[in-house]
Every structure is written in C-alpha cells, then in structure tokens.
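Postdoc handover notes: sequence design on the structure in folder B. Input tokens:
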C-alpha cells in the first residue's frame, strides 16, 4: 500500500511537471515606436488604480492571476507563459509598451480594444498592473 501511494504521488508530480515543461517563454515583442513613446494620460492615483483593478479582475486575472504572477486558472492551458508582472523586466517597460502588449496583444494574448472600449479603463489597467511588486 505504501508503494502504491508513493507511485501515485510521483505520477501526479510528473503529470504536473509535464505542463510546466511544455509552456515556453514568449518571444520578443515588436512594438511600434509610437507606443514606446506613448504616455499614460491618467493620473496614477487611487481612483484609477481601483478602476484598473476592477477591469483586471474581469478580463485579465484568468490568465495572469490575482497578483500578476501568470498563474491564473487558464494559464496552464496556454502554450506560452503569460508573464510575471512583479518582475523588474516588466516594470522597466514604458506605459506605452505595456499598453500595446495588454490592449493590442498578439498570438495568445488577445486584442482588448473592443472588450475594454473605454480608453480610461484601458489605461487604468496599466496603472493597476504597476502595483504588482515582489
């Protein structure tokens, strides 16, 4: 019986590991110059962060997770890792770069221009994502 329990635990671990091995890091993004220079028109204040949180929880957390670690319930089904919003690499990007990646999207990251039609809401999400820290 003890051997069977160990076998089951090893099988579960290998099964879980197989999902993480298959998921790769996304390749580099080609972001147009106009987005690289784009500045967030919203103040990074409590109101915009709260609005951004509501939009994020509705549209983003299923893949990116509650705290931006890329560990949402749908993340394991993706071919590429959704990203870590707490990383220094993420925070080194301009708001315009984050906007392009988050709203325009590519590949498995869908376009959100129609799902989040309000420009204020789109930029509020960027402000909220900036709150994720390690």
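Designed sequence:
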């Amino acid at each position: 019986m003890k051997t069977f329990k160990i076998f089951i635990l090893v099988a579960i671990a290998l099964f879980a590991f197989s999902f993480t091995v298959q998921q790769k890091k996304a390749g580099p993004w080609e972001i147009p110059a106009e987005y690289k220079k784009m500045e967030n028109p919203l103040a990074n204040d409590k109101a915009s962060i709260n609005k951004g949180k509501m939009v994020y929880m509705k549209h983003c957390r299923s893949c990116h997770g509650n705290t931006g670690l890329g560990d949402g319930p749908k993340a394991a089904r993706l071919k590429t890792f959704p990203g870590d919003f707490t990383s220094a690499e993420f925070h080194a990007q301009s708001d315009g770069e984050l906007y392009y990646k988050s709203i325009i999207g590519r590949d498995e990251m869908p376009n959100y221009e129609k799902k989040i039609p309000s420009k204020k809401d789109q930029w509020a999400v960027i402000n909220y994502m900036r709150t994720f820290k390690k």
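Context for whoever picks this up: The chain has one domain: 2-129. Don't rerun without checking with the PI first.
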